[in-house]
Design brief:
With 308 residues, the chain is α/β, with parallel strands linked by helices. The protein folds into 2 domains: 2-116 and 240-307, FAD/NAD(P)-binding domain (3-Layer(bba) Sandwich), CATH 3.50.50; 124-236, FAD/NAD(P)-binding domain (3-Layer(bba) Sandwich). It is 24% helix and 29% strand. The protein contains 7 helices and 17 strands. Strands 1, 2, 3, 4, 5, 6 and 17 form a 7-stranded mixed beta sheet that branches. Helix 1 (14-25) runs parallel beside helix 2, helix 1 runs parallel beside helix 7 (286-307) and helix 5 packs parallel to helix 6 (183-190). It is elongated and about 65 Å long. The model has no long low-confidence stretch (mean pLDDT 95). It binds flavin-adenine dinucleotide (FAD). Flavin-adenine dinucleotide is lined by residues 10-16, 33-36, 40-42, 44-45, 48, 50-51, 81-82, 111-113, 116, 133-135, 138, 243, 246, 276-278, 284-287, 289.
């Protein structure tokens, strides 16, 4: 079966859902697809405190509110995993894993986000989102006056460590190599009195019974010394993986797997737009994803109108 739309949006996180709201209000025939329940990374976020006007609420609650908003406006949604997008000029073809339907659209908005890389060690799944976090801007405030371990030594790890060290009593950094971030930031971090850095370490496990209580790690040097550090929380910064495999062939992704867009959220392929965390950007947050979604939908609607 083949179905046609003005705009197909791939991904129903905050970027995709905001794009859907703006696109349908621009009188477009819109379809939004997601392989999972709508909400994206918000669903795994314990508490959101920085979405303007929303106060403090759970990520799941914000996800439901956004999805209900799309449904009140009549956005069509389907559970589908997109595996391929081809550019046929004025028509794009969107192929899904499920296989029974092929979608064609005048424009496509890619809002598939990223997933934080994980270590894959014991205890990580148990304490994910209730002790282990991937976002200090989001969850750091919970650890005010407490002890925290940061895993990683790149730019995100170092920048977020400087922030966390300002609110935590003790901050320990455990990293596979030495600090690899911007040298100035590394110097700033090293000078902080409550920071200890353990370079060249492998994390072995996260421990705890009722709550996360510590991290065990081992030196990758010859001595292979094992250490255990107690903590109330862990922040992992070992990179992220862009969910862009489905559109790798379009030639719009950079070496990190993210989509390069201009300020109108246009990619180098006419009719293909990007929004949210999947794009090359500095601040990956709900509010910036929504902003991208609104801009992408506006640009996509203008593009569709230009084809008529
Ligand atoms: C632990 C954690 C806590 C956070 N806390 C906060 C916070 O408090 N405040 C804040 O502002 N930000 C927070 N963030 C960041 C915020 O969640 C993201 O910036 C935001 O969700 C990005 O939105 P997005 O729509 O671009 O992508 P996502 O939210 O990642 O959504 C992408 C969607 O695309 C779908 N998808 C991917 N590939 C495919 C495919 N091939 N086919 C179909 N669907 C696909 C996914 O299933 C997903 O639903 C947090 C992030 C994490 C990891």
């Amino acid at each position: 079966m083949e179905k046609t739309y003005d705009i197909v949006i791939v991904g129903a996180g905050p970027a995709g859902m905001t794009a859907a709201i703006y696109a349908i209000r621009a009188n477009m025939k819109v379809l939004m697809l997601d392989r999972l329940s709508p909400g994206g990374q918000m669903i795994n976020t314990n508490e959101v405190e920085n979405y303007t006007g929303a106060g403090k609420l759970s990520g799941a609650e914000l996800a439901i509110r956004m999805f209900e908003h799309t449904q009140e406006l009549g956005v069509e949604f389907d559970y589908k995993t997109v595996i391929d997008i081809t550019d046929g000029g004025p028509w794009k073809t969107i192929t899904c894993e499920e296989g029974n339907t092929v979608y064609r659209a005048r424009a496509v908005i890619l809002a598939t986000g990223t997933v934080p890389r994980r270590l894959g060690v014991p205890g990580e799944d148990t304490w994910a989102a209730s002790g282990i976090s991937w976002c200090a801007i989001c969850d750091g405030a919970q650890y005010c006056g407490k002890e925290v371990v940061v895993i990683g030594g790149g730019n995100s790890a170092v920048e977020e460590s400087i922030y966390l060290a300002g609110i935590c009593t003790r901050l320990t950094i455990v990293t596979m190599f030495d600090l690899t971030a911007d040298p100035k930031a590394c110097d700033q971090l090293r000078k902080l009195p409550n920071v200890t850095i353990y370079p060249y370490q492998d994390v072995l496990e996260f421990t705890g019974t009722d709550r996360l209580t510590g991290v065990r790690f081992r030196s990758t040097r010859e001595d292979a010394t094992e250490r255990y550090v107690t903590c109330d929380g862990v922040f992992e910064y070992i990179g992220f993986a862009a969910s862009s495999q489905a559109f790798a062939k379009l030639g719009i992704i950079d070496r990190t797997g993210c989509i390069q867009t201009d300020s109108h959220m246009r990619t180098s392929v006419p009719g293909i737009f990007g929004a949210g965390d999947i794009t090359v950007k500095h601040l990956r947050q709900i509010v910036t994803a929504c902003s991208d979604g609104a801009v992408a939908a506006n640009s996509a609607a203008n593009y569709v109108e230009s084809l008529r």
